């Protein structure tokens, strides 16, 4: 597809990299860091000269999820209903583990000036049951008419319950309007275990390059499904008349949500339409429509 080529050296090729958590892929001196799990790109703006770069990646097997391949080129394809709704167009048209706690708890001191990975701990003598509690009313239906895709996400993470700090877990309630969609997205820091409480949902996730294999299933009330950490996934309410509800546990105090349509077509400032037109192999007019 696009004019570029990657050589990735991983533990599958160089056994010595196993357990070292680093691998190598290749500008002379300028350095730039792409944080783990975030969507990124490189583009050679020179129309005449090729360019080359080397990158080190903090995993023995970092995997690549190319958005165009995973979203539009999965095998089998994701339903065009799901993609049309996610990208708000007509039908015609990576990843981390949390460090283990080294004490019983480390309740987040959300006001601390200390910057650490996560939050600094409150003095344990000052911790109370309320630090582990939130009257979140997760039993109550949410409004699914605000959002254009017909879903509403209520995430209870460390910002709502400071006691979750360092514990590597959080919970979410998702409400779906009839034909509502939770559009293709990833959680860069969490695996998700998903349970349908009410309704029928078509769900799926797509593996990293080169296979981009879609694993999908129709789930009914009571069914449980797993979305592996970092992989692009979605849920769609197949019922045109009834709403649906699900809940998930996520293996991070702050799983992060990267919604593909928003990160690719609605970034601030926008990614150049030259880059997106080449990546998706479509006319710039289509990109301008998606960015509108
Ligand atoms: C405990 O909390 C109170 C009220 O927020 C605060 O004034 C006090 O400094 C805290 N003590 C410790 C040891 O952190
Ligand atoms: C989600 O539902 C709540 C409560 O019903 C509502 O206040 C909020 O605006 C909704 N948010 C979105 C993004 O739909």
TrEMBL record:
It comes from the Eukaryota. Its main location: secreted. Disulfide bonds join 106-121. GO terms for molecular function: manganese ion binding. Residues 136-288 form the Cupin type-1 domain. Keywords: Apoplast, Disulfide bond, Manganese, Metal-binding, Secreted, Signal. Oxalate binds at residues 182, 187, 192. Mn(2+) binds at residues 185, 187, 192, 233. It is found in: Secreted, Extracellular space, Apoplast. Residues 1-21 form the signal peptide. Coiled coil: none annotated. One of its GO terms (cellular component) is apoplast. Belongs to the germin family. Oligomer (believed to be a pentamer but probably hexamer). This is Germin-like protein.
């Amino acid at each position: 597809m696009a004019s570029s080529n990657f050589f990735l050296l991983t533990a599958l090729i160089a056994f010595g990299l196993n357990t070292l958590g680093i691998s190598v892929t290749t500008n002379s001196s300028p350095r730039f860091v792409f944080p783990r799990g975030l969507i990124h790109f490189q583009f050679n703006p020179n129309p005449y000269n090729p360019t080359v770069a080397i990158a080190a990646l903090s995993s023995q097997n970092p995997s690549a999820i190319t958005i165009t391949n995973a979203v539009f080129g999965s095998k089998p394809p994701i339903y065009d209903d799901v993609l049309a709704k996610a990208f708000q167009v007509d039908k015609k048209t990576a990843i981390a583990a949390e460090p283990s706690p080294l004490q019983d708890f480390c309740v987040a001191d959300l006001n601390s000036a200390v910057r650490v990975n996560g939050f600094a701990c409150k003095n344990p003598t000052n911790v109370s049951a309320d630090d582990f509690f939130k009257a979140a009313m997760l039993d109550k239906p949410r409004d699914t008419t605000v959002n254009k895709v017909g879903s509403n996400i209520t995430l209870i993470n460390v910002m709502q319950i400071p006691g979750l700090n360092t514990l590597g877990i959080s919970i979410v309630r998702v409400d779906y309007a009839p034909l509502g969609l939770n559009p293709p997205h990833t959680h860069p820091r969490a695996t998700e275990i998903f349970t349908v409480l009410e309704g029928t949902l078509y769900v799926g996730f797509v593996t990293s390059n080169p296979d981009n294999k879609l694993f999908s299933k129709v789930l009914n009330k009571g069914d449980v499904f797993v979305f592996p950490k970092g992989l692009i996934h979605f849920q769609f309410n197949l019922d045109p008349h009834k709403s649906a509800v699900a809940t998930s546990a996520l293996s991070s105090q702050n799983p992060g949500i990267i919604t593909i349509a928003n990160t690719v077509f609605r970034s601030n400032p926008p990614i150049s339409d030259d880059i997106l037109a080449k990546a998706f192999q479509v006319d710039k007019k289509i990109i301008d429509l998606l960015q509108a």
